[in-house]
Design goal:
This protein is mostly helical and 75 residues long. Helix content is 79%, strand content 0%.
Length: 75
């Protein structure tokens, strides 16, 4: 259940980034396209997602994304 919840949140983040890019493709979010692609992979390719990949995203990528989003919101 926890893995499904985490994957769902990554899907939501990917959808939000996709919506932002449609509004203004000049918004500076590192690896924005990869975030959207990951969302699509989770939604459409369940069998190709490994728990290690999800863990890697959580540990190595979400902290920097959080920082970037905070900076965007503060400006």
């Amino acid at each position: 259940m926890l893995q499904q919840a985490v994957e769902r949140n990554i899907e939501i983040i990917g959808e939000a980034v996709n919506a932002l890019l449609k509004i203004d493709d000049n918004i500076k979010i590192t690896d924005a396209r990869r975030i959207v692609d990951t969302r699509n992979k989770i939604i459409h390719g369940y069998d190709s997602i490994q728990p290690e990949q999800i863990w890697n995203i959580i540990i190595n990528h979400l902290p920097s994304l959080k920082t970037e989003v905070r900076m965007l919101l503060d400006n």
